[in-house]
Amino acid sequence: MGLALGHPQFGYYMTRDPLGQSGDFTTAPEISQMFGEIIGIWCADQWLKMGSPAKIRLVELGPGRGTLMADLLRATKNIPGFHAACSVHMVETSPVLQARQKHALEGHGAAWHASFADIPADLPYLVVANEFFDALPVRQLVAHDGAWHERVVALDADNELVFAVRQAGITPAFEPVENAIYEFSPVRAAYMNALCAALALRGGSLLAIDYGHEKTAPGDTLQAMREHRFTPVLHHIGEADLTSHVDFDELSRIAVANGLAPELRTQETFLNDYGINIRAQRLKVANAGHSQSIDEAVARLTGNGQMGRLFKVLSVAKA
Ligand code: SAH
What we know:
- The longest helix has 17 residues, at 33-49.
- This protein has 319 residues and is α/β, with parallel strands linked by helices.
- Helix 3 (33-49) crosses helix 4 and helix 10 (276-286) runs antiparallel to helix 11 (291-302).
- The radius of gyration is 20 Å and the shape is globular.
- It has helices spanning 2-6, 28-31, 33-49, 67-75, 82-85, 95-104, 186-202, 248-257, 267-273, 276-286, 291-302, 304-310, and strands at 56-61, 86-91, 111-113, 125-130, 139-144, 147-155, 161-167, 181-184, 204-213, 223-226, 229-231, 241-243, 246-247, 260-266, 311-318.
- The chain is built from 12 helices and 15 strands.
- Residues 6, 13, 19, 27, 29-30, 62-64, 68, 91-94, 97, 130-132, 135 line the site of S-adenosyl-L-homocysteine (SAH).
């Protein structure tokens, strides 16, 4: 999964802009400006609660086209002192997407990094990550004959990629019910741990948004998407997006282990709590004639059968 997405020459994200109608999938910031604006309100609110520190590092992980950050910055420009306090850091491995982000953020003095670890660890942070953790690679165990085995990718006699198994390196605390799949992600856990350690040291808050589950449980959530359709995960390696649902239970435990306080909400609750309906009303007044598309965007972002429940928002701050 890591190679399929991140190989320097052939990796899916390294070679293309996958977003939007002409791409493979659409994300919340690309649905409506309101998404980034509401996250901007969250950031400003966190900054005020921290006592308006004079300098803070505003970090986005996996920023796609840079739309979220551009909307966030526009929505917060009238909050006295906030922009002056923020230095903007974009963590992005894809050269194609970095170029798009630079275009979207012209004039904001942003800096780009390949990893969060490259950002100076001297100031408090505000970290936002939309559909970032889901792109970090997972491992899968599969239950067979009363035991867990690690799922691996192999070549069959026709040189086609197939799933195979080998001895598992860990034993999960779940019954090995025949054919059950258990996913875990040491890469996600390590990234979360590094973020939480930095927040514990310097202060600040983190917001991670993804589709995912509230409780650690078995289940196969690895999926490939191409041209807005699901495709078998081994069929278009490097040509399809690969993601899996984020185990927010585990991310929350890592936050607690670092002495931080996690709070998990659905995207619907988060966007409502931070005023998406008020924002939508204002937009409708300012853009007569666009009422219907604004209502549709709110429904897509918050709707029960749409993104509202499947997507979760984890915020982490000092306890
Ligand atoms: N946040 C954006 C894009 C989501 S797609 C949006 O909501 O529209 C995933 C993003 O994470 C892409 O920008 C991809 O290039 C980036 N990415 C994937 N793996 C990464 C890694 N290990 N480090 C930094 N960025 C990564």
